Amino acid sequence: MTAGVSEHVPGQRAPRIAGRASFGNILAAELIKIRTVRSTMWTLLSGVVVSVGLSVLLALVTANQFDSMKARDRAEFDPTSNALAGLNLGVVAFGVLGVLAITSEYASGLIRTCLAAVARRSHYLAAKALTVGVVVLVVGEVVSLVSFGLGQAVFDGKGIAAGLTDPGVTRAVLGAGVYLAATALLGLALGALLRHTAGAVTTLLGLLFVLPVIGSFLPGDLGETVNKLLPSNAGSAVMSATTADGSLSPWTGLGVFCLYLAAVLAAAFWRLRTTDV
């Protein structure tokens, strides 16, 4: 046998050459991260508690005040969107979860190890987006169903409850979970683009809450059109069983929100591929 050359013995498996992680390996690693990182799990739990707790609280207040509401307000009352109202604030926690899923790695320096272990940087961000999106989608659908069920139990005492088989209700409940998942992905995209937790969270809050306040000051038809197209106003339209005045239709609104998401995600992929960590 020649020195320095190993001989392959028949019947034995040839030694594997170590390589970079496959997409499946990256997915498995991201699932472990999201289950074991404390900040992620606490943020996820806070999103559940805030969404469900606030939805029930608002349903109790609404039911208590229902008889004193104006006749027009009672006629236009949507028990579905009212039962899901707490998700409009809980969405912040899910968005922050998306931010932390990637900015925590930039803060700790782990991002360098992660990117060195993958064959393509785009695979790393795609796996992280898929993991965050699926986890929040599953949790979001549970949160939406529980909030809806508890809210209708409160409204049932007033005879104003809705059922899942009523027109538009199932779409609204399931769409609410999709909206939560899309917001988490928006947070992830902002985190990957800005690479700083405070900056990404501030930007996310500005998009969701500050822009609607600014838009409310715009006059006339311009203000009405702009307000319809703002991210949170467009995305949350899917949580109503009917199309409210001054809002986009449910699926159109969610589609507009997803266009914002796609634009920020594309920018995040571009920066990750073209700049150093």
UniProtKB/TrEMBL annotation:
The keyword ATP-binding belongs to this UniProt entry's keyword annotation: no
Species this chain originates from: Actinomadura yumaensis
ABC-2 type transporter transmembrane domain boundaries: 93-269
Keywords from the UniProt entry: Membrane, Transmembrane, Transmembrane helix
Annotated transmembrane regions: 42-63, 83-102, 129-152, 172-194, 201-220, 248-270
One Pfam assignment: ABC2_membrane_3
InterPro entries the record matches: ABC2_TM
Its membrane topology: Multi-pass membrane protein
Compartments in which it is found: Membrane
The protein's name: ABC transporter permease subunit
Keyword Transmembrane appears in the UniProt entry: yes
